User: Fold this.
Amino acid sequence: MTNKIVNATDSPPPGVTDKDTESSSEIREQLALLRDSANRFTAGDAHIKRARALRGTRPGYDLDVWRKMAKLGWLGTLIPERFGGVGLGCAEMATICEVLGRSLLPEPVTAAVVLAGGTLLYGDNEELKSELLPALTKGQMIPALAWRENVHHCDFLAVDTRAEETPHGVRIFGAKRLVVGGVFADGFAVSAQSRSGIVLYWVPSAAAAPGLSFRVLPDGRAIADLTLSGVEVPASHRIAGPGAAITALARAFDEALIMTAAELLGLSTKVFEITLDYLRTRVQFDKPIGSFQALQHRAADLYIQQRMCRHALDEILSSVQKPDLHPDTRGALASRIKARCSDASLRITRDAVQMHGAMGFADECDVGLFLKRAVTLSAWLGGAQVHRRRYAKLALTEMAS
Assistant:
C-alpha cells in the first residue's frame, strides 16, 4: 500500500474548502477544535463495542451518553442562543455527525436534534419553542418527527394523517411509520392534513403511548411505528400552521439529509482505515496482502470514492451557510450529497467486508457493523435513486426560474 493511500483519510474540517481566504481561518480553527473534542469523546473502540452490545434492545442507546453530549453543547449546536443553544451552523453540526458516524454511536442525534429539533425550531409557535428547545439542548427531552406514512415512499409532503378541529384543539387520526428515535421519545412532532393544508402538532409521549409499536432496523437500532386514533391535542401544541409547516419540514429534512451524509462519510472513512490496517497486517504467501496489486487497485478505488464524498460535502456545507440561499437550491444540494454518500458508503463497506475475506462475514468482525449501519442510513430519508430524482427535479425548477 502506498503512503498516499494509507494517509488518505486525513482531511480538513467539513465546510472549509481550498478556496477559503484568511478571513475563514477562524472558522477553520473552530471546526478543528470541535473535531478534536468529538474525537476525544469517541476515542478508542468502546463506542463500537457499545453499539454492538445495544443491538436489538430498547431504546437502543444510552441516556447517560445523551446527557454527556448535552453538556458538551452538541445537542444545541443548531439552536439559537435565545433558546439555550449554541447558535452555530451546519458545518459545525456536520463535524460532530461525521465523528459520531466513525464510532457508530447509536444515539439519535440527527433524528432528534436536526430533524425533529429543526422542525420545532423552524415552526411558527414561539411559546412552544421556548418550552421545548431549551429542554432539548440540556438533554432533558428527546423529540421525534413522525412524518412517514408509506414505507415505500420518502415524500414528507405525502400526508394522509388528518387533524380534525375540536373546540379546544384537534383530534389526530392516522399512522406514522419508521419513526427513528421514537422508542424513548418524550413527544412527537406529527404532520397532518387540516382543512387549510399540512400542519404540525406536538403530541406528548403519554398521549401517543397507546398507539406505539416497535421494530428493529438492520443495524440493530429500534424504531417506532405510531398509530393515532383520535388523539386530542390542544391548540397551543400546534408547531406550525399551513404554509409554515411545509417550510419547516423542508428545511429540517434538508439539514437532516446533509448530517446523515456526514455520518455516512464518517463511517466510510473509519471502515476504510480498518481495512487498510488489515491489508497491512494480514499475511499470505509470506507477504502482507496489501502488497498484492489487485487489492491495491481496489483500495485506490475506495479512496477515490471517499475523497469525492469529502470534497462534495465541503462544497455543499460552504453553500448552505449562505443566508440568501433559495430553498430549492438547498434541497438540491442536500439530495446531491445524500445520493453520493449513500452510494459511496455502500460501495466502501461492502468491499471492506470482501477484502477481509471469510472473517469479514463473521458477526464478530466490526466491518459488518459498519455495513449494516451504512445500509440503514443510506435508506433513511430516501436512498440514492430517490435523491438523484429529487436533485434533478429541483435543479430543473431552479434553472427554469
Summary: Residues 1-10 have pLDDT under 50 and may be disordered.
